[in-house]
Amino acid sequence: MPPKPPKPTPAHSKHLTHFLCIPLVTPTSRPQLQTSLSRFRADLTSNVNTNTITNTTSQSSQLPSQSSQLSSSASLPPAGKIEPRPTIPPKAIRPVGTIHLTLGVMSLVTPEKVQRAVDVLRGLDLKGLLLRSSSSGSSSSTGSNNRRNGEKEESRAGARSELESDAAVVDELKVTLKGVSSMNDPTKTSVLYTAPVDHDGRLRRFCLGIRDIFMAADLMVADTRPLLLHATVLNTVYVPGVKRKGGPSARNGRGGGGGRKERLTLDARDILERYRDMEWMSGVRVEKVAICRMGARKVEGGEEGDEEYFVESEIEIP
Fold first, then answer.
1. Residue ranges per domain, the chain?
2. Of the candidates 28, 11, 17, which has an alpha carbon nearest to the alpha carbon of residue 287?
3. Is the distance from CB of 260 to CB of 55 less than 8 angstroms?
4. 147 to each of 137, 140, 142, 156, 224, how far by Cα in Å?
5. Dist CA 150 CA 168 (whole Å)
6. Which CATH superfamily is domain 11-134+170-316 in?
7. What confidence score (pLDDT) does residue 155 get?
8. By the 8 A CB rule, do 120 and 213 touch?
9. Which phi and psi angles does 196 have, rounded to 5°?
10. 3-class DSSP state for residue 191?
11. Do 273 and 174 touch, CB atoms closer than 8 A?
12. What pLDDT, in 10s, does the model give residues 34-57?
């Protein structure tokens, strides 16, 4: 009986160093996101209702998962009609420069692995991926047919595809971020995000096409969950933890109960309802695909409190 293949190593057990993403901060989107996040921060951090804030033990960090007015199509809750809501530390609201769509995470622990990931990124045929994402056909099934037809036919098909890709006119891929959702139970959550409007599924197909290439190159940490395109706007992992006062561990004499750090959680049901129709940015062209390092850093010379991820490499979307 042949040995069973090894199970994929879970992401939480690997040293995650980088992530593949669609950056959403552009010269066009920045003013919109700045206005939206400023209003969101002012709304959530200026009212007191401590009954809806609790603490839970933090097991792991949330993966990363980025002035003028908003565009006329964007919508914000009325400034003068804010209902009482929980006090949320400002650090929980994500800085403008960190807003992105994560396609997957990577463990690139050597310079050689980093370079290989960069080479794969720079070798992407983004125009071809955009063309294929505009149709409902699967690029993977096309590839399977080519392989069955033999190497010569595959080569011809590849060359023909490349010529067609060069000659074709590709519609721009634009993103609108709308609403707020919870990453887990909204009655006791620590992560809120907004999602792109993608009625025809084109953005998702484009992102899956990129992710599949990195998966095939064995550069992405395996994840069996469906791809959830989202931009995190609130994450309490960035709020300094608090020490437990007593608790079961301390009472049972097992040690460590008094110094264990906990993570803030909140009942976000009112927030989800209030911001369900909010447009954070509207009709912004997707410009780049990037590999970024984990861990946002402060922007030198930028606006106060802004942060961004170090870009290992990026390529322009045609």
1. 11-134+170-316
2. 28
3. no
4. 17, 11, 9, 12, 26
5. 26
6. Cyclic phosphodiesterase (3.90.1140.10)
7. 42
8. yes
9. -75, 145
10. strand
11. no
12. 999 999 999 998 754 433 444 444
- What SS3 class is residue 220? coil
Sorted by sequence, the CB contacts under 8 Å of residue 304 that are 6+ apart come out as none
Percent over 90 (pLDDT), the chain? 57
Of 89, 243, 268, the C-alpha closest to 191 is 268
pLDDT in tens, 120-149: 999 999 999 999 998 754 444 344 343 333
Residue 71: Cβ within 10 Å count? 18
Distance between CA atoms of residues 226 and 80, nearest Å: 39
Residues 6+ apart with CB under 8 A from 201: 136
Q: What are 278-311's pLDDT values in tens digits?
A: 999 999 999 999 999 999 999 877 666 789 999 9
CA distances from 160 to 163, 175, 283 (A): 5, 30, 32
Greater confidence (202 vs 57) lies with 202
Tokens in use for 204? 């998702």
User: In 185-310, which ranges are E strands?
Assistant: 191-196, 231-235, 242-243, 261-266, 279-285, 288-293, 297-298, 307-308
Question: Is the pTM here over 0.90, yes or no?
Answer: no
Is residue 78 helix, strand or coil? coil
Q: Which two tokens stand for residue 277?
A: 């129709």
Q: CA-to-CA distance for 237 and 241, rounded, in angstroms?
A: 8
Lowest-pLDDT choice from 53-57, 166-170, 223-227: 53-57
Could you tell me the two tokens for 101? 């769509």
Q: What is the mean pLDDT of residues 170-184?
A: 94
At a CB cut-off of 8 Å and minimum separation 6, what does 156 contact? none
